[in-house]
Design goal:
- It is a single chain.
- It is built from 17 helices and 16 strands.
- The protein is of the alpha+beta class.
- Among the domains are: 116 residues, Uridine Diphospho-n-acetylenolpyruvylglucosamine Reductase, domain 3 (2-Layer Sandwich), CATH 3.30.465; 120 residues, Alpha-Beta Plaits, CATH 3.30.70; 94 residues, 2-Layer Sandwich (Alpha-Beta Plaits), CATH 3.30.70.2740.
- It has a seven-stranded antiparallel β-sheet, sandwiched between helices. The chain has a five-stranded antiparallel β-sheet with strand order 5-6-9-7-8.
- Strand 5 and strand 6 form a beta hairpin.
- Helix 2 packs antiparallel against helix 4 and helix 11 crosses helix 13.
- It starts with 22 loop residues before the first helix and ends in a 12-residue tail after the last helix.
- The structure holds flavin-adenine dinucleotide, (2R)-2-hydroxypentanedioic acid and zinc ion.
- Zinc ion (ZN) binds next to loops.
- It catalyses: (R)-lactate + 2 Fe(III)-[cytochrome c] = 2 Fe(II)-[cytochrome c] + pyruvate + 2 H(+).
- Its cofactor is FAD.
- This is D-lactate ferricytochrome C oxidoreductase.
- Belongs to the FAD-binding oxidoreductase/transferase type 4 family.
Length: 509
């Protein structure tokens, strides 16, 4: 088995490296909204609410820049409340003064939603990270929004439970951020979306009111299910301060297989067969193209999972990661073995390796999870996170590659801005990640890709955001996935709850 370092979080960014361009320089047509401007008296008020040590005005570059180093805001202050009532008081003050706010969790978002655009006040939830309660019979967990996903899952592991969401940024992202983005992740196939597992939410509304809906009921048909409004609202309707979530029992037996196949058709065939034959133990089904393996190898500096002692990446055009989880190791092993044997016999699978222990399981997952960060290794990345009918999923990568070639933007030398597009994602959820790896961010590339990609998705009845959200990147493109009536209702809701538009402006809609 290969050896990789397990990297659960995201790499520390080097802020001393080449400065990220200000968002307002990249998009010079942006206009600052009619908001108040931060004054010394505001800082005094914030200090009186939070204490001096939770109000930051120096060394706040990291809160202004996003994970992809694509967007940079100009906030002058970062606030780190420790309680819901502090969040409420801050928001009330900002609303009275019409100061815009950018709520921020772990700042791992991939659509530019988590960083300010102009001088919004950053409200970071990282000071609120207490587990509030856990019921060992029902599996209902109540946490502060700032709890880190990975630490929360480690807490649950000790109790025999698992958090119903897992993703590559688990070491940095926060539960509040996960809920605010309605993150999908690696095991949605097994545990479903947060719209199902979140039972309750506590949030501070734009006028400072505390919306307390921290329920722990699986069934509750008493009126509108208001908590759903906050799941996926990306900080535009309220600041989430607490989450109640139903956690499943942690599977005792977990297997991971990493496979090589000869075509995207073979990926689909393997998926259909896995659903039929692995059925209840299938917990994840991920695919990766060869280009994604190339960037990953460069980034992780480790041998490929199927390399067998060589330094090369085997010549398969597509790779699959299958995870099974259940309660009986012998049963699951036998089922997976038979599935792999028959798939090799009929030629659907050409090559593969299966993890033999927990460390190898993590290593194989690390290889899949690494691609997101690896894609920006040459300088930058344009990310498209889309839902499409399974049969069309990879066609978008081919279409994007062709379009970039026609525009003469792809090449091996530095004069070309684009290195290559890579495709991978959650086949089990019909979710493709198209990452166009670039040496630098340029308007030319962006114009060739957008709105072309969004139009393509709309023509093929997909969604322009499967799981990362709209943020800043997609705010002008919602109409490719939502009708006029749907957009009008969203705008009405926003206007009703946030008439001053202070929460996360310039994003979403
Ligand atoms: P942030 O990035 O800080 O914020 C994201 C958005 O939510 C912003 O609009 C912000 O204003 C808002 N927000 C944050 N906290 C709150 C709060 N408490 N109240 C209200 N609004 C808030 N996403 C997936 O869906 N699936 C994946 O598999 C996946 N993998 C990833 C892998 C990597 C390596 C990286 C870097 C990102 C990945 N993401 C994935 C993106 C993703 O959205 C998240 O990482 C995560 O859900 C964001 O959480 P966060 O705490 O970092 O939020
Ligand atoms: C993943 O599935 C994440 O790895 C990140 O959703 C995808 O970076 C991306 O485009
Ligand atoms: Zn994903």
């Amino acid at each position: 088995m290969l050896k990789l370092v397990f990297r659960a979080g995201i790499s520390k960014r080097a802020y001393s490296a080449k400065a990220v361009k200000l968002t307002v320089e990249t998009y010079p047509n942006l206009q600052r909204g009619d908001y108040g401007t931060l004054e010394e008296s505001d800082l005094t008020r914030f200090r009186s609410i939070l204490g001096d040590s939770s109000v930051f005005v120096d060394d706040i570059e990291g809160y202004n820049e996003d994970q992809m180093r694509k967007y940079r805001g100009q906030s002058q202050v970062v606030l780190k409340p420790k309680t819901t009532s502090q969040v409420s008081e801050i928001v009330k003050h900002c609303n009275d003064r019409k100061l815009a706010i950018c709520p921020q969790g772990g700042n791992t978002g991939l659509v530019g939603g988590s960083v300010p655009v102009f001088d919004e006040v950053v409200v970071s939830l990282s000071g609120m990270s207490q587990i509030r309660s856990f019921d060992e019979t029902s599996g209902i967990l109540k946490v502060d929004a700032g709890c880190i996903l990975e630490s929360t899952d480690q807490f649950l592991a000790e109790k025999g439970y698992i958090f119903p969401l897992d993703l590559g940024a688990k070491g940095s992202c926060q539960i509040g951020g996960n809920v605010a983005t309605n993150a999908g992740g690696l095991r949605l196939l097994r545990y479903g979306s947060l719209h199902g597992s979140v039972l309750g939410i506590e949030a501070v509304l734009p006028d400072g009111t505390v919306f307390d809906s921290m329920h722990s009921l699986r069934k509750d048909n008493t009126g509108y299910d208001l908590k759903q409004l906050f799941i996926g609202s990306e900080g535009t309707l309220g600041i989430i301060t607490g989450v109640s979530v139903l956690c499943p029992a942690r599977p005792k037996a977990v297997n991971v297989a990493f496979l090589g196949v000869e075509s995207y058709e073979a990926v689909q065939d393997t998926f259909s067969k896995a659903k039929r034959e692995l059925s209840e133990i299938l917990s994840a089904f991920e695919f990766m193209d060869r280009e994604s393996q190339v960037v990953n190898k460069k980034f992780l500096k480790a041998p490929h999972p199927l390399a067998e002692g060589s330094d090369e990446i085997p010549e398969y055009p597509f790779y699959i990661l299958i995870e099974t989880s259940g309660s009986n190791k012998e049963h699951d092993d036998a089922k997976l073995e038979q599935f792999l044997e028959t798939s090799m016999e009929d030629g659907t699978i050409l090559d593969g390796t299966v993890s033999q222990d927990e460390a190898q399981t993590r290593t194989l997952w690390a290889w899949r999870e690494g691609i997101s960060e690896a894609s920006q290794i040459e300088g930058g990345v344009y990310k498209y996170d889309v839902s499409l009918p399974l049969s069309k999923l990879y066609d978008l990568v081919i279409a994007a590659r062709e379009r970039l070639r026609e525009a003469n933007l792809i090449g091996e030398t530095d004069e070309y801005p684009v290195v290559d597009p890579v495709g991978y994602g959650h086949v089990g959820d019909g979710n493709l990640h198209l990452n166009v790896c670039v040496r630098r961010y340029t308007k030319e590339v962006e114009k060739v890709l957008e709105p072309f990609i969004y139009e393509w998705i709309s023509q093929h009845h997909g969604s322009i955001s499967a799981e990362h959200g709209l943020g800043f990147q997609k705010k002008n493109y919602v109409h490719y996935s939502k009708s006029d009536v749907e957009i009008a209702m969203m705008k009405d809701l926003k206007r009703h709850y946030d008439p001053n538009g202070i929460l996360n402006p310039y994003k979403y809609i």
